[in-house]
Amino acid sequence: MLKIGLTGGIGCGKSTVAALFQALGVPVLDADQIARELVEPGQPALEAIVNHFGPGIVVAGKLDRARLRQLVFAAPEQRRWLESLLHPLIYAELERRLASLSGPYCLLVIPLLLESGRRSFVDRVLVVDCPEPVQRQRVKSRDGMSDAEVDRLLAAQLGREERLRAADDVIENAGAPESLPPQVEQLHRAYLALREQGPRLPSRIGHDAIDQ
Ligand code: ADP
Questions:
Q1: For ligand 1, atom 16, which residue shows the shortest CA distance?
Q2: Are residue 130 and residue 205 in the same domain, yes or no?
Q3: 34 in a structural domain
Q4: pTM of this prediction?
Q5: What span, in angstroms and rounded, lies between the C-alpha atoms of 192 and 184?
């Protein structure tokens, strides 16, 4: 099964694009969803987080995600600690779920795929791209974050240019949502064709955003 890694900066439109692939019948696994499940009450990862950050990180038995976010953004070494705990568990769980999927290809939504040095986990990297001012605006209106919070989040992620350089394929999401389905359908056809051709992958699909 061909593994397409869908990545992109926060707010660029990964979830929106993933839903369009899913509507075409493509199996989708979401690393963020797995990360949330891994820290549910009773999970070993939650216990490790409580041991590390102290019992104040749990409120009414549940992880205080906002508090954890504050702590890790204030201290890069804490972020690295948390990532070194969760990333291996997330990739192991992705592997486990992959084993039960079937179809010509699947989409793995992995926001930090490139940042975590796991490019080789997937066969092909699909980047959802938009200009930074658009990205900031979307994050602010979706999550109610301040400019400073968005700044910190973006500083922890790859820059747009670097991410685009690593892309095999690109979905450009600077415009209206209506521009997405045709791009998703084009890629869907290309991925189905790729699966039939075997491992020899053609050059980049959806290249328009690259040369801007
Ligand atoms: P990500 O999963 O990459 O963080 P989302 O798919 O959640 O991004 O999109 C971020 C926000 O922007 C969401 O509120 C979404 O509804 C909105 N959004 C996504 N694409 C567009 C678009 N083309 N036009 C307007 N809003 C969009």
A1: 16
A2: yes
A3: no
A4: 0.91
A5: 12
